[in-house]
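>> received
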Amino acid sequence: MEAYHPFAALRHRNFRLFWTGQIISLTGTWMHQAAQSWLVYELTNSPFFLGLAGTAASAPILLFSLAGGVIADRHSKRIIVLIAHIILLSLTLILAVLVATGVVNIWHALIIAFLIGTVLAFEIPARQSFIIELVGKEDLLNGIALNSMAFQSARMIGPAVAGILMGSVGLASCFFINALSFLALIAALIKMRFKPVDVQRGTTSGIKTSLKEGLKYIRNTPSVYTLLIAAGIISFFGFPYISFLPVYARDILKTGETGLGILMGCAGAGALTGAIGLALKGNTSKKGMVMAAAGIIFSVALLIFSFSETVWLSYAMLFFVGLGAINQIATANNLIQLTVPDELRGRVMSSFTTMFLGMAPLGNFTVGSLAHYVGTQNALLTSASFCLAGTLAILWIKPEIFRM
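>> returned
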């Protein structure tokens, strides 16, 4: 039997280009995320607007990802991702100029966040279903794990760097750096070369029919819709915590901009640790067990973080939040991608994107509204409790998850 290689996907030239470009681009993206949160909180001094900004960024994913999946199955995924990043560069540069010139207001930030989210609604399904064209089926699991490593490395490094720059140079620098970082992935996509057999043919059916085909497949495949529901619970009740980290950094833990970067970096460090573990572990036969345990770890750690007012405990809990999140989401991603037929991959992955990221706007708005009346800590405590209860309910109702 051939030995398992934890970096097998990097044997493929196109994936090496993509992976390297992603590390650079995503680092800029996470710098942007940290700076945007601080910008919104400084402009409004309101947890509600933090939730609203999170909603503005992620609502388009809920609204448009299914359409993005149809387009991903009909057109070149490389071209879709390339065009999307050119647009993202332009939007980020506009925000950077607005901040640098001192004319930015909350509506600028919300509108640009919404436009960026709209672009991502079409880019993410194409990018997720593009990996198989870069590495083939034999290295797909490894490609997903390494892609998660790139994402989480950026999540750990980007906010930490942003925290330093925000305190020393200013907010605008983070947005300018993000704009430049998109060039790395744009260049990588341009340099890729494919054999005709490597590129999946697009569907020839109509858009409405294509969408119905994807939804019918999900409805008739219990393992897939169970994974989607589990991802939706984490997204709705769990992921809104990210939008409220500025409140913890400034008002609860009293650590300022640098502390915000460390909070986000700790979650990124936990997720990076989880991604490395997935890559090293390889194709385990106990994916269902891993996903179930990860969902519980995520929920319990978030519950403790919500009421913590001790800096070191908060950092530690966010590490486990990140660890649990990546193990659950990456494992679900693996299971879905290996189950779905190639011709439906974009549409099914767009549904995964809708549940994984698209439920967050509803959660952000709900938790933000609750925070306005009962305080951020109480709101996040309530949300984390529902996250844990929902995860346990899924495992109770669908025990077959453990056997996946």
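>> The radius of gyration is 20 Å.
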